[in-house]
User: Fold these one by one.
Assistant:
Number 1:
Amino acid sequence: MSSLKPNPWLKKLDVYEGGRSKAPGAARVIKLSSNESALGTSPRVLTAYRDAATTLHRYPDATSWDLKEAIGAAHGLDPARIVCGLGSDEILKLACRAYAGPDTEVIYSRYGFMMYPIAARSVGATPVEAADVNYSADVKAILDAVTARTRIVFLANPNNPTGTYLPRHEIERLAGGLPPHVLLVLDAAYAEYVDSDDYVAGHELVASFPNVLVTRTFSKIYGIAALRLGWGYGSTEVTETLERLRDPFNVPAPTQAAGIAAVRDQEWVARARNYNAIWRQQMTDAVSDLGLTVVPSAANFILIRFPERDGVTAEAANAFLTKNGVLLRWLPKQGLGDCLRMTIGLEEENREALRLLKAFLESTGR
Ligand SMILES: *Cc1c(COP(=O)(O)O)cnc(C)c1O
């Protein structure tokens, strides 16, 4: 052992585990474990990405300015208040580096996105879990958890892995109830998939709440998870702080080019949204018909609950599906050992997952 002294809080830092992509022994793999887009990447985006390959010897635009303008135009937002990151994960971590640290607390909801405690711990802050209600975030529990040490509240809306969302009035209640020194990060990674009228990603809150930061990603509906692109929108105060902290050339040039093409191709987004809405409903109904419980989802995945008796457990179902090449997400470390999260895939992928779930239940004698 050397006498190096890593920061003591790093001992408690869990490594983020992504969805599995391999099923040893299976003839083919159906990957429904990471909420990637069923429809994949738009052809226009692929063209833009390939074109960017001719200038790989050049550094990227350090400000990602054209990308910010394209995002701003698509969403009706001021590009000067957009900060781009290597995935929205980078924005979440920048927020922690900027506003949290040792002797501070970072709040998130029970069954909230796994990155929040990791990002909090990476800077020495203490993650604080607020109770949920029925797999949904509870504004009162979050507000009750606030102390003088609280610096950030993270809320994924819709939430991963539960798929539940809070409507506009609840988000307003949360923003209005937080002390102004607490940064509220509204992580809207799945915003494009929501079709309820009472949903807002939260951009319009920024005008009245300088302590609100909304984060978005290109990893889900835009179908470019491999390129690692996300962004945040907040008050000038917040975005300028994050801009100062980020690496100078954080977003690679091909990623910027692909992002610009992606955000301009709203036809592709609409297709993916419509496709998802149909299959999210079909899978919810079909899995419920098998006698399993599905948490109502606003996103591109469903959370399936198992009774956990007579052999009908999430763990056994996960093993059965994996052996047959279908990868879902089992999340025992998040306290969801009785659940499997399934990303909505292509029709034949969804049907195969269903067929195997049914076969699994039959194998247990149900
Ligand atoms: C997938 C996901 C993200 C996106 O992360 P990227 O770093 O942009 O790929 C962010 N938040 C939640 C809740 C997610 O599920």
Note: The radius of gyration is 21 Å.
Number 2:
Amino acid sequence: MEKKSQSKKVQTDTFLAQIGNHQNPVTGSINTPIYFSTTYEHPTLGESTGYDYTRTKNPTREVVESALAVLENGAIGLATSSGMSAVQLVFSQFPVGSQIVASRDLYGGSYRYFKELENQGIYQFIYVDDEAGFEREITEKTAAVFIETPTNPLMSEVSIEKIAVFTKQYNVQLIVDNTFYTPLIQRPLDLGADIVLHSATKYLGGHNDLLAGAVITRSKEIGEQLAYSLNTTGAVLSPFDCWLLIRGMKTLSLRMERHEKNAQAVVAYLKTSPYVKEVMYPGRGGMLSFKINDQQMIKEFLRNLSIFTFAESLGGVESLITYPTTQTHADIPKELRESYGLTPDLLRISTGIEASEDLIEDLKQSFESLN
Ligand SMILES: *Cc1c(COP(=O)(O)O)cnc(C)c1O
């Protein structure tokens, strides 16, 4: 038997289901083996099997990294220990004093990290709300642009293609956190981005049982630099977690279909609910937010739910409901959050893969038992 390349000559669904298959000519194992070995025997001085030490390269990690690169249509994929270590890796590249332009409405943990970088005098961040803001702020002083689309938790889309026009003009890196949409809905590199990153803890892993991150680069050169940096700093994904991620990704396509279908059904219901004043949903994906009429009711509303779980995070098979004000976005100062619409009446939902009728019924009974 021979090892077949994991390249994308087939439809994405086929590719996903087959991750790791045809990769082990010695045993023919369909399921990727977990290589726990931290070190590898050298045949003789000056020779290597290609594997020396697991921080540098690991056969299980290689399978997931090459799959990530194919999925996002990039040159190089890297698997990291968490989404935040993926963000950290990407932001290890720029000279001290660099200016970064970023989406204002983004994951609270990324905001907290950027604040930390700023406090240490490493970079300066400028936050903008929309495409016009990016057009205004990207200049030759900018080192990189960082966006989340749809934004989090307000769920508005910004055009990667439009922003890429300016980043190309000034020759600055465009970095996209694609956690919410996944490559099944949006491939940022195809739209002009230079680097895509993920919290693979979310949809890619998909089962609320794994913390992982991913970085995929359009250019081989930047990818190799980041791989060097990852090997140097060490936040690689462990072999067992690589295996969990491979297993999760095999069903990504099926799951995304259901997440999206459920989100659309929940959105349709919430729009008719007298307890809800605003629903935010970009029309695709499994994430939505809504504003409740009376924010005093939030505590009781959350307590009444029996299928939705009140928890932070997203992208797993179980439906979750999050209160960004005290959970995911608590590190953004109150006045700042509220100034751009992240108000204390806002709840965020990640629809799982349950039956939509049950999800709607759960929300309905919880609203109706209020007061
Ligand atoms: C969760 C999340 C992160 C951070 O990822 P971890 O895996 O929790 O470290 C980054 N970006 C977005 C959009 C997220 O949802």
Note: The chain has two domains: 12-250, 253-368.
